[in-house]
Amino acid sequence: MGTSVQVTPLSGVFNENPLSYLVSIDGFNFLIDCGWNDHFDPSLLQPLSKVASTIDAVLLSHPDTLHLGALPYAMKQLGLSAPVFSTEPVYRLGLLTMYDQYLSRRQVSEFDLFTLDDIDSAFQSVTRLTYSQNYHLSGKGEGIVVAPHVAGHLLGGTVWKITKDGEDVIYAVDYNRRKEKHLNGTVLESFVRPAVLITDAYNALHNQPPRQQREMFQDAISKTLRAGGNVLLPVDSAGRVLELLLILEDYWAEHSLNYPIYFLTYVSSSTIDYVKSFLEWMGDSITKSFETSRDNAFLLKHVTLLINKSELDNAPDGPKLVLASMASLEAGFSHDIFVEWASDVKNLVLFTERGQFGTLARMLQADPPPKAVKVTMSRRVPLVGEELIAYEEEQTRLKKEEALKASLVKEEESKASLGPDNNLSGDPMVIDANNANASADVVEPHGGRYRDILIDGFVPPSTSVAPMFPFYENNSEWDDFGEVINPDDYIIKDEDMDQAAMHIGGDDGKLDEGSASLILDAKPSKVVSNELTVQVKCLLIFIDYEGRADGRSIKTILSHVAPLKLVLVHGSAEATEHLKQHCLKHVCPHVYTPQIEETIDVTSDLCAYKVQLSEKLMSNVLFKKLGDYEIAWVDAEVGKTENGMLSLLPISTPAPPHKSVLVGDLKMADLKPFLSSKGIQVEFAGGALRCGEYVTIRKVGPAGQKGGGSGTQQIVIEGPLCEDYYKIRAYLYSQFYLL
Fold this sequence. Notes:
The strands form nine sheets. The protein has a seven-stranded mixed beta sheet with strand order 6-5-4-3-2-1-24. A seven-stranded mixed beta sheet has the order 7-8-9-10-11-22-23, covered by helices on one side. A hairpin with an 8-residue loop joins strand 1 (5-11) and strand 2. It is α/β, with parallel strands linked by helices. The protein folds into four domains: 5-207 and 544-601, Ribonuclease Z/Hydroxyacylglutathione hydrolase-like (Metallo-beta-lactamase, Chain A, 4-Layer Sandwich), CATH 3.60.15; 211-383 and 505-542, Rossmann fold, CATH 3.40.50; 612-650, no CATH class; 662-738, no CATH class. It contains 21 helices and 35 strands. It comes from Citrus clementina.
C-alpha cells in the first residue's frame, strides 16, 4: 500500500499550549517542533519524555519558545539525541531566544532546568537548510526527502514538506499570507493536493482588523509620548520584534520624532548583528533595496540597543519608548519595567500579541483588565557576612571531598595498572603510601632524622632502607627531547570559538559589559523575592501585530491546497471544531482532530504499490530520450518474487500494437513565435492560431471542450490537405517526442 503516515500530538491540541508533534512515516519518527512556554513547567513535556529516545529527526519551524523552547531540556534530560533540521535564521535566532530566556530567569531565580552549555549542546546538532533545499535522509530514513519553504510570520519561519514515494506530508503552522515590511507571505498555496496537511486552527475565529484600525498602533504611541508618558512594548527576544522595529523606524523618520526608542533584551545587540546578515531571507523590497543602494534595513538610526536595565535607568529623563522581553511579562526586563510604570496614568503598555495562557500579559489583556495585580519582584544579590562565610566554608569542604575522591581514584588506577602479578608491596625498596604504621618522623640509624620530603603520597619507611621516590610506569611516547606532544590536543576548534563568541553576544563585544557579567560572574549570590500589589493605572491596549493568517485567509488557503487528508492542531477547542466543520464541507472529507498522545493513521488511500522491475523485463524495453529523462512503453504482468515482493514480469502473450503518442507540453503562446521564425504568418483569432491562409491550430481539452481543462489535452490541426498543412504539421510534430 501507500506510504504509512501516523500523527501523534505531544502538546498543542485543543488549546494554546506549545507545539510538539510526532509524525511517523514508514516507521521513521519525526518530532516536528519541540516547544515550551514561559512557565517552563516540566509536566507539559511528559508525553515527549515517553517517545524522546525513539525520535529519528527533529524539524523546527519557528525560532520562538513555543516552537523550540524545550529542545535543550529534552536533549539534556529526556534522552532526545536525534539530528535537528532548520533554516539558518531559526537556528541563530532560536539560540539567542533561549539565551535570553535563561539569563532572564537566572537573574531572578535558581533556574536549573538547563544551562547555557545545554543550549549550545542542543543547537550544535542543527543542520541548516535553505528554502526549497531538498535534503535526502539516509539510513533508516532512506527515500525520505525534507525541504523547508517560506512560512512568513517570523524570520526563517518554515513550512515543512516531507516527501516519500511521491507523496507529500505538509506541516504548516503559524504561517502568514500577507507580505510585511521584512518578510514575504507564505508559499503554502503553491502546494496542491498533498497526501496529508498538518496545520493549526489558532486564528480560525479571528479576523485581522482593517488597516485603519492597525494604524492606531503608531497613533497610540505618539499620543502617549507627546503627553509626557512612557510606552512599554512587551516583545519576544528575536521574532516579531523585528517587524515592530522596522515599523517604528520608518514612522520616526517620516514624522521626524525625537523621542528615544530602546530595544532592551540580554541579546539585543547580537540579534540585530545577525539579522543584518539575513537579508536574503527577507522580503523582496528589502533585498532589492540592498542590491540597488546597499541600504541595510536593520541599520537602525532611531533605535538604541540595550542589554542591561541599568543602561535604561541611566538614560536621560523624559518620554521614551521601550521594547523589552518577555512578551508574557512573566520574566525579563519587561516584567520589572511594567511594575515601575503601571501606576502612572500617563504611561501606556501596548501589547502586539496575545499573551500566553495563564501569564500576566494574558491577565492584563482581559476585558475589562484588572485594576490591581499581584506580582513577585526578584533580584539576585551578592552574599555578605555570615552567609558568605558559610558559603565559602561549604565550598572549601566540597573541594576537599572532590580532591580526596580524585586522589583515591588515581591510586586505584595506579594499583590496577601494576596488575596482580606485579604487586611489589613485599619489596623492601618500594614504599607503600598507604602503610598506616609508617611514621612521618623516623629516626636514622645514626641518630638523625629524615627531613620531610614534600611529595604527595610519600611516607618515609619504618625500616632502615633509605627513602626512594615511588615509581609509576609511564606509557607515554618519548623522544630525545622529552615526551612527544600531539599538537591536535591544543587546537581550538572553530565551532568552539563560534560558541564562545555566541556566549558574549556578537562581534561588538557589547555583551561583555552587561549581561555577560551574569555568565562570567562567579561571585556567590542569592535571589531575594517579595510580593507586591501593583495598582494598574496606565493605559493598556492590544493591537494585533502577530503576523499570522486570519480565519478568512486560512479557509481560502485550505480550499486552494485541497489536501487529501487534513490534521488540525494548536487552537482552542472552539476554534478547532469550527475549522473542522468548515473543512468537512468545503475542503476534504477526511479531517482529523486528535487528542494528546492519540495516534491517528492518515496513510494515503491511493492504493499505490511498490513493484520491482525484473531484469528479464527490462532487457527488452526500448527507451527513448526525453530531455533529461528516458521513456518507454512497458507491457508486463504482475507477479511475485521469491521474497514475496510484487514484480513486473514479461507478458506471456504478444503485446497489442500501440498507437503513436506525442509526449511533451506545448503552449500556444510558445508555438506562435516558433512558427513565425519558420516564415509562416501566424495570428491569434478566437483562442486559436491562424496559420497562413488555410490552416488553424486549436488546443482541445477532454470531451472536445476548447481551451483545455483538466485531463489529457489534444492539439487539433484544421484545414485542407495542402502543402502548408503538411509543413505546419511537421513543424508541430518537431516540438514533441514520438513514442
